[in-house]
User: Fold these one by one.
Assistant:
Number 1:
Amino acid sequence: MSDNIPRHVGLIMDGNGRWAKKRLLPRSMGHAAGMKRMIKLAAHAKERGINYLTVYALSTENLAARPKEELEGLFDLMRKYFAVNVKSLFKEGAAIRVIGDISVLPQDVKKLLSDAQTKSPANAPFTLVFAINYGSRPEIVRAARRAAEEGEITEQTLSAHLDTAGLPDPDLIIRTGGEMRLSNFLVYQAAYAELYFTKTLFPDFTSREFDRALSDFAGRDRRYGAATSAPKG
Ligand code: FPP
């Protein structure tokens, strides 16, 4: 594996519904398979030396438009993850952070999310960031309002009021499931992110394929607007 490892990876976990449909299973089973996959990938990302993995678990649009039954299934997965599975992450010294407007979630889910953050160690080498009821546009509007209340809006003051305050910008964003767009995920923060798209449905996205995305990233020429560098030898 290359030593050019991204510090922060964003992951758009798309394709759970299609994965379930192909197997004639309910969509909720696709999300359950997605959660298992996410757990494996988080452990793998940590092992690879990535410091932050941000997973898009529920977008603002999903919350508004998905059937109640599907949302209940997702909340049940969150209950299970944050009450049970999260313990193994803590045992390894990793931390949890949540971004998005969680104020509208069921009371017990909100409590589990805030407890997970409170229990998280400071200065953890690895943080798993959950984007829940997250959308970049509402995030930017909230941040702009708060920054304006306090004074001038600059890149620094705006960033300091985004949900991601304190996190480095993502270096790499991976989207599974075949669509090639960001869908309101870390839009401001992704200004210089490298993008990696794969048709693989999220429950089938193995650690091996994650490594392929890392290798692809390692070969990219990140110029941040500077002139082209000499060809790679
Ligand atoms: C998009 O696939 C995926 C989601 C809306 C949910 C992703 C959630 C998980 C992987 C579980 C996360 C676990 C926790 C604990 C938060 P889709 O349903 O839009 O797939 P489709 O495009 O094939 O229909």
Note: The chain has a mean pLDDT of 95.
Number 2:
Amino acid sequence: MTNHSRQAELRATLERAGLHDRRVLDAVEATRRDLFVPAELEDRAYDDSALPIGLGQTISQPYMVALMTQELALDGGELVLEIGTGSGYQAAILSKLCREVVTVERLPELAEKAQRALSKIGCANIEFCVGDGTLGWPARAPFDGIIVTAAAPKIPAPLLNQLKPGGRLVIPIGEDAIQTLVVVTRQEPQPTIRNVCGCRFVKLIGEAGWPPE
Ligand code: SAH
């Protein structure tokens, strides 16, 4: 099967699973996921599952990538912060749906690999940063939306503070096995918090996340 038809099939799988944002589905269909997985897992690149990418980390399940992106409700003009670059696949999807992506990864080796994969497909509107993303990225704040692709014990305060009024933070919250995907909207006097679904992510490690093991 060609990559093109595997991409179309993945889109159909996500549509059957209930995802409805056409722009997000178009972005998934237009993005080669095989470029973001290790060569030995290439034949599983279009499965709707998370896969290991080395250093104990994973590329997220396409359904979860699409769902989290849908929850950001992007219309094309936004500046979006991603915490947890990992393979770079989520950043590739975001880059097609907003004005600019700033993506932060704590492991330099993964950040470099992701940058190489993304330069192959020519995503020019992504800034790569290495550091502790639990502190956000103050130099580029405020953001229209923030997406965190690793699970935190609680909502990291610096991230909420770097959101524009009305902006959304999409983040998995919880322990190893029980996590909830939540959408936090910055509003006065109080942010609103909505639970979306159960999920399972690797740990967000940093000052406003989990301590290193
Ligand atoms: N979005 C990724 C999924 C990556 S898995 C993709 O599409 O492939 C989560 C990533 O978060 C891992 O690479 C991990 O190293 C990174 N991470 C964990 N804690 C972090 C922190 N405090 N700041 C930045 N990245 C972090």
Note: Residues 57-60, 83-84, 86-87, 89-90, 104-107, 110, 132-134, 149-150, 202, 204-206, 209 surround S-adenosyl-L-homocysteine (CB under 6 Å).
